[in-house]
Structures are given as C-alpha cells and as structure tokens.
Design goal:
By secondary structure, the chain is α/β, with parallel strands linked by helices. The chain is built from 15 helices and 15 strands. The chain is globular and about 65 Å long. It starts with a helix and ends in a 16-residue tail after the last strand.
Length: about 450
C-alpha cells in the first residue's frame, strides 16, 4: 500500500481533526441571547468543508442570512480544502484544522456538521457538550451504537440536534402530507415506494467514500434516510419490524477491468462510466487541488475492489400503526425519480416524481388521487426554485429565521426523527446480513410509537 492510500484511509477513518480530541466541558446553560456578541447574530461554526458544507451550509448562509447569522470558525482536517472553502464561502473568520481548538476559542451558538457520515457522532456530541445546538446533515449517523451515544449526549446537554431533512419542505411532498393528514384517502393501510437513481447520480456514490459501508453505512442509511424520514413523516408513525434483501451486482468487482480513479485510467476509452473530473472546475478546486493533504480521490473508479455496499435494495417494513411499506432503491436506472402510492380505506394517492432536466417542458409535478367508487383527481404542483425542489431555502429559513414559527405540517426534524430514519435503514442492513427480520426496538432505547411524538 502506498503512502497516498495510507493517508487516504487515515483521513477516511478520522474524518476530521476532532477524532482524537477530548470532549469539551459543558456550557449548555448559556442561551443564544447570552452568548451572542455585539452583532446580536447567531454565532456559527462549521466542520466539514466539502460540497455540501461549502455550498448550502456555507456560501448560501453568507449570501442569504448574514443579517441574522455569522461564521466564527470553519474546521476541516484538510488545510488546503479548508482555506479554499473559506474563500468560496466568503466567510471572514478563522479556520481550524484542530476542531477542539475552534470550539474552545469561538464558543459558537450553533455547530453545523457536514463531515463524513461515520464521523457525525463525534462532532455532534462534542458540539452538544460545548453548549451549542447542532445542525447535522443527514444521516444523523451510521449505526445504532453511535445513535445511542448521540441521544444520550443530547439528553445530558440540554441542547438540541436538528437534522436537515430538506425533502419535507418541497411543495409536492408537503401537499401529500397535507392530504394524508386530512384523511383524503381514509386510513392508510399500505405504501408502495420505489426510488430510482440514474446512471450518473447513482454512480456518483460509488466514486466517493460512500461506496464503503464503514464510512457511509450503505445507501440504506446514507441515501434512504431521506426516503425513510419522508415515510415516517407522511405516515405520522414509526417503523417497528424490518425485513430486507440487497446485493452488489453492478458496481464494484462486477466488471472485467478496473483502475484506482478515472484520471489516467488505461480503460477510459471503453468505460461508459468514465468521468473527466478536469471538466468540473468546482471539483478540481475543492478536491483535486488538495489531494496531497489526505489522498482522497474524488473521481474514484466505480469498479474498485473495496466497494462493499449494495447497489440494489428491497425492504419490507411494518409500522407501529399497522401500515405495511414496500420499498426499493435502484442505483443504475436510465432515469431518476420515484414512484409512490398510498393505499387507503377510501382511495389511493399516487405520484410519479421525475427529476427533470432543464430542457424538459413540464414545470410541475402531478399527484393523482382516486376515490373508491369515485372519480380521479389530478393535482399539479408547480416546481419551486432552489435546491431539492425548493426544500433547501424553506429549511434554512426555519433554522435561521423562524425556528419558533408555527409548524402545522410538522416539518422540523429533531434527533428522534433522525434516529428513526436511520434505524429503519440500519435494521434493513442487519436483516440483509442475517437473513432475519429485525425489530427496531432492539437497536436503541427508543420504542417505536404508533403516532410520532411531537416536539
């Protein structure tokens, strides 16, 4: 193994400068108001200056919320990417390779965690113990042991964890939630939910660290946490029993040739999935320019032997309220989107939500509702601007501008929501490994509820 591989593995195993640091002393009793400085803005710190950290939770915050929030520190284990991230974000604040030092010196009101999934728990726990509320990217973490540690830390600290489930905020999904809450199809009895990642987006997970389960928890956790949270939220219930199957049959070693990464690959002329990262200046500036510090290759080969996650997955789950879920995730579809159908005692609500390209004419999503012994109603929901169908800006408004505003659709997500979404995926992963159904209650001290707890 070369030094670059060793450095990369060390980076992936630690994910941030805080990996070996001690937990900071608690200052949880100090409120936002008492800790803000003369600017009277929320003092923000961010750890993890990758794509999501520097864009949605970095640059967008500076551009759209500087009147209410300010960055007081940025942290990443990669000093080159850290400095580039500060410039890209436009933040006028110190940068830290040492996460503990940042928390100690800056005492932020809020910590934003956008590191590798497997390290989320380290920073969430340290942030809570340092007296900060924590905003974490999904998934909250990758296994049940880390999940329990986060829940325990939140209880001890008196601070709160916010999980960034932006899908809840997009107009089409919010409309479905509203109709289900209002009993439009009666009592829901079962759901068919099938998600398709196309050959570009789906493949991207296998190029990156997400392709190894020790870092991303498999796509049943990293990606499906979005989908499972939507299901928990739509049904207003929590998963109880899970059975799943999955396999790696397309990516990884399922190919006659392979390399380390796309640049310089001798097989690029005959590989349909070849990616020329040099054509993407953003990836070049953020990752390629700083490989010397950690050895992380953003254009990793899809056929690497260390890929060990599933690329097709099927899940059967029973909810505490009796609803049955049939779910699948495919990662090499020719198109991207999802099909969903809620079967109720008085009808059926269904939608085919396709991720459309800029050149396609439709500017709406369509929901179809059919009454038993009745008519079919077609409801068109206009596309909203911004990322994730308009969900990003609505989520960020809630976090930074309106944290205490009324929430009639219960879109705000806390640690229990974050836990229940990943626990469904973790249970599915364990079921695949053992061939047996898994009870969600066996994973943590959270007992699945027929009706989701409020608050």
């Amino acid at each position: 193994m070369g030094n670059t591989d060793l450095d990369r593995r060390r980076f992936l195993a630690t994910g941030g400068a805080a990996a070996a640091g001690a937990v900071l002393g608690s200052t949880s009793q100090r409120s936002y108001a008492s800790r803000r400085r003369s600017s009277n803005k929320i003092r923000l710190a961010l750890v993890g200056t990758g794509i999501r950290g520097t864009s949605m939770w970095g640059r967008d915050v500076v551009r759209n919320y500087s009147d209410v929030a300010e960055f007081v520190g940025l942290s990443d284990i990669n000093p080159g990417r850290l400095e580039y991230g500060r410039e890209y974000i436009g933040a006028d604040c110190p940068t830290y390779v040492d996460f503990d030092q940042m928390m100690r010196e800056q005492e932020p009101d809020m910590l934003i965690v956008t590191t590798m999934d497997s390290t989320h728990h380290e920073f969430i726990i340290k942030g809570l113990e340092a007296g900060a509320d924590v905003v974490t990217e999904k998934p909250m973490t990758t296994d049940d042991v880390k999940c329990r540690a986060i829940l325990d830390a939140e209880r001890r600290s008196g601070k709160k964890v916010i999980v960034t489930f932006n899908y809840r905020y997009s107009p089409n999904r919010a409309r479905m939630k509203e109709m289900l809450m209002n009993g439009r199809i009666g009592e829901v009895t079962s759901v068919d939910f099938h998600w398709y990642l196309d050959i570009y987006h789906g493949a991207s997970y296998f190029r990156r660290w997400h392709g190894q389960r020790e870092y991303g928890g498999t796509l049943l956790v990293h990606k499906a946490t979005h989908h499972f949270d939507l299901m928990n939220w739509w049904l207003d219930s929590e998963p109880e029993t899970v059975y799943a199957q999955g396999a790696l049959e397309h990516y990884g070693t399922n190919n006659p040739f392979r390399s380390t990464n796309c640049r310089g690959c001798p097989h690029q002329d005959r590989c349909d999935f070849y990616m020329d990262i040099t054509q993407n200046q953003r990836l070049m500036d953020l990752y390629v320019a700083h490989e010397e510090h950690d050895g992380y290759l953003r254009d990793g080969c899809l056929w690497r032997e260390d890929i060990n996650i599933y690329d097709k997955m099927g899940v059967q789950a029973r909810y505490a309220n009796g609803v049955q879920l049939t779910y699948s995730l495919t990662t090499y579809s020719p198109y991207e989107g999802y099909r969903i159908a809620f079967n109720g005692t008085e009808g059926r609500l269904e939608a085919w939500i396709k991720e459309r390209q800029p050149w396609e004419a439709e500017d709406y999503d369509e929901i179809r509702v059919t009454d038993n012994f009745g008519e079919t109603e077609l409801i068109r929901i206009s596309h909203a601007g911004g990322g994730h169908g308009g969900g990003d800006v609505r989520l960020m408004d809630r976090v930074f501008r309106e944290p205490d505003a009324p929430d009639p659709l219960q879109q705000s997500a806390g640690s229990r929501d974050g836990a229940m979404s990943i626990l469904l995926g973790i249970a599915a992963r364990k079921s695949i490994e053992t061939g047996q159904p898994v009870n969600v209650a066996s994973l943590t001290d959270l007992q699945p509820r027929a009706v989701r707890p409020r608050g």
